[in-house]
């Protein structure tokens, strides 16, 4: 799976980084940065939890070919 | 050992705690039925925007849905909405709905959140609270007729309502019974800082201002009478004086209740098997302190939803809830984020940190060199560091070093 982000929607709440620092970070302006967009099978639970923890649905998972 | 996952999981409550639990169960591969019971007959929606974007009109109900793009079925959840749960029978393993229908469960997750406290109010909708979508819609409608707005209580929701009112160009006053507004949650020093933020944005902030009564006038507006005789005209009165956990329907069920559903560190309710609680209704055992705690923040509900989904599906690998308390609030364009837990006798120090995005202020609360809490103004990156530091039990020196590493310069500034 691939992580997608709508940086315009991100509000810097940081929940994604807290749960999944391997894939997400914040820049100085408090906007999400994708460190690594691709998510392997073993990481799906953690990255999925990060996606569900975003209060403004600025991040989501998409199939690799999407 | 093989995990024994329960077959039919019932979730009571359709807000963020309940819906995220259902979604997390599916994400973790649960194949049994997930039934979600909810009192409200609307698409599950998120609450933080109700005092912010929804009040000012930049978001509508469609923008704040908690369901995925495929709705209930896409999320694999079976809804039973528009009917409140009125009774839990943990022996028969049933929840009884308002119309008398019993719903069987193998395991049940209680996510009935909290209900707002209010003050004695005259007939009509002059005096409002904001908890549900319909509350926000009613306030928005009243705001469209003009101000002034009087907010009772200087908690976060009230502060956000005042901020939204100003954004709409309405006069707004916050009245707080305690002498120092915002101090109950933030302490007096940071409270003073937030009072200034509101004053600068044109909000009148009154401390030692207890409400004696609210009078309603024939034209639909009213007057807020303070205990000291002051009278404040109000087109709308919004009360934000805290909430009461939604446990009324659980009285007599045998569960241990005490301003919330008491649970162990795994969010399993005490007093009955296969009952879990998450979010604003759960008073969980904090293993760090040995005390039961109830946290009324969005992120707590989501983290507990994830945790309970895991614990339901992996009874042989139970995880305790140990995350840092965290919330955000948006007021007058400033993002206020708080991590940790403030003690009344904490020392507060302010740091001004220079970053590529400008100067940022952080208030650090400490006791005997230990790091209790941080309030961060407009610097989300620092919040991530504070959460990590808090969860690892780092001390004041360590969190200060982390913040310095994120900034090009860090200087202490006077408190307040
Ligand atoms: C206006 C507002 C703004 C907020 N802003 C922020 C913010 O900026 N940051 C932050 O961290 N937190 C914020 N919060 C707090 C956050 O929204 C809550 O912590 C969160 O909603 C808790 O979720 P919950 O699912 O536990 O409970 P709730 O959201 O209270 O939901 C409980 C659900 O259970 C249902 N229910 C109750 N009783 C029954 C019953 N007997 N039978 C069936 N269903 C029942 C209710 O209808 C509701 O759907 C805000 C809250 C409000 C109200
Ligand atoms: S959780 Fe959402 S809003 Fe918060 S930083 Fe991540 S993407 Fe941005």
Automatic annotation (TrEMBL), chain A:
Its cofactor is [3Fe-4S] cluster. It comes from the Bacteria. Keywords: 3Fe-4S, Electron transport, Iron, Iron-sulfur, Metal-binding, Transport. GO terms for molecular function: 3 iron, 4 sulfur cluster binding; metal ion binding. This is Ferredoxin. It comes from Blastococcus aggregatus.
Automatic annotation (TrEMBL), chain B:
Keywords: Dioxygenase, FAD, Flavoprotein, Oxidoreductase. The keyword Flavoprotein applies. PANTHER family: APOPTOSIS-INDUCING FACTOR 1, RIESKE DOMAIN-CONTAINING PROTEIN-RELATED. Its cofactor is FAD. This is Phthalate 3,4-dioxygenase ferredoxin reductase subunit. The keyword Oxidoreductase applies. Residues 326-396 form the Reductase C-terminal domain. GO terms for molecular function: dioxygenase activity; oxidoreductase activity, acting on NAD(P)H.
């Amino acid at each position: 799976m691939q992580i997608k982000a709508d940086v315009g929607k991100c509000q810097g709440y940081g929940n994604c980084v807290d749960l999944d620092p391997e894939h997400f970070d914040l820049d100085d302006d408090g906007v999400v940065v994708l460190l690594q967009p691709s998510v392997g099978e073993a990481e799906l639970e953690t990255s999925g939890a990060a996606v569900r923890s975003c209060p403004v649905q600025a991040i989501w998972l998409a199939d690799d070919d999407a | 050992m093989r995990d024994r996952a329960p077959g039919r999981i019932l979730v009571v409550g359709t807000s963020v705690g309940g819906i995220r639990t259902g979604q997390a169960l599916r994400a973790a591969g649960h194949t049994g039925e997930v039934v979600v019971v909810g009192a409200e007959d609307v698409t599950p929606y998120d609450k933080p925007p109700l005092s912010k974007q929804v009040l000012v009109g930049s978001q509508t109900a469609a923008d704040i849905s908690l369901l995925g793009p495929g709705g209930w079925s896409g999320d694999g959840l079976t809804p039973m909405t528009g009917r409140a749960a009125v009774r839990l029978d943990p022996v028969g393993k049933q929840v009884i709905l308002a119309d008398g229908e019993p719903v069987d469960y193998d395991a049940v997750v209680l996510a009935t959140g909290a209900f707002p406290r209010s003050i004695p109010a005259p007939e009509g909708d002059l005096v409002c609270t904001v908890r549900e979508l319909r509350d926000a819609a009613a306030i928005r409608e009243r705001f469209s007729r003009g101000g002034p707005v009087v907010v009772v209580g200087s908690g976060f929701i009230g502060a956000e309502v005042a901020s939204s009112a100003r954004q709409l160009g309405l006069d707004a006053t916050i009245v707080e019974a305690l002498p120092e507004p915002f101090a109950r949650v933030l302490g007096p020093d940071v409270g003073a800082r937030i009072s200034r933020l509101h004053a600068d944005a044109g909000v009148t902030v009154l401390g030692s201002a207890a409400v004696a009564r609210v009078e309603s006038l024939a034209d639909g507006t009213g007057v807020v009478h303070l205990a000291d005789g002051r009278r404040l005209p109000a087109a709308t009165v919004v009360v934000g004086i805290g909430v009461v956990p939604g446990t009324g329907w659980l009285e007599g069920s045998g569960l241990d209740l005490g301003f919330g559903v008491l649970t162990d560190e795994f969010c399993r309710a005490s007093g009955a098997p296969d009952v879990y609680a998450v979010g604003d209704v759960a008073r969980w055992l904090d293993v760090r302190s040995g005390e039961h705690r109830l946290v009324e923040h969005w992120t707590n509900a989501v983290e507990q939803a994830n945790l309970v989904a895991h614990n339901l599906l992996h009874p042989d690998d139970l995880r305790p809830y140990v995350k840092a308390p965290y919330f955000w609030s948006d007021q007058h364009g400033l993002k206020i984020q708080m991590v940790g837990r403030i003690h009344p006798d904490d020392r507060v120090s302010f740091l001004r940190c220079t970053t590529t995005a400008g100067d940022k202020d952080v208030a650090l609360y400490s006791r005997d060199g230990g790091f209790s809490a941080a309030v961060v103004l407009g610097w989300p990156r620092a919040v991530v560091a504070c959460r990590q530091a808090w969860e690892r039990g780092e001390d004041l020196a360590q969190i200060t070093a982390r913040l310095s590493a994120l900034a090009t310069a860090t200087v202490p500034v006077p408190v307040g």
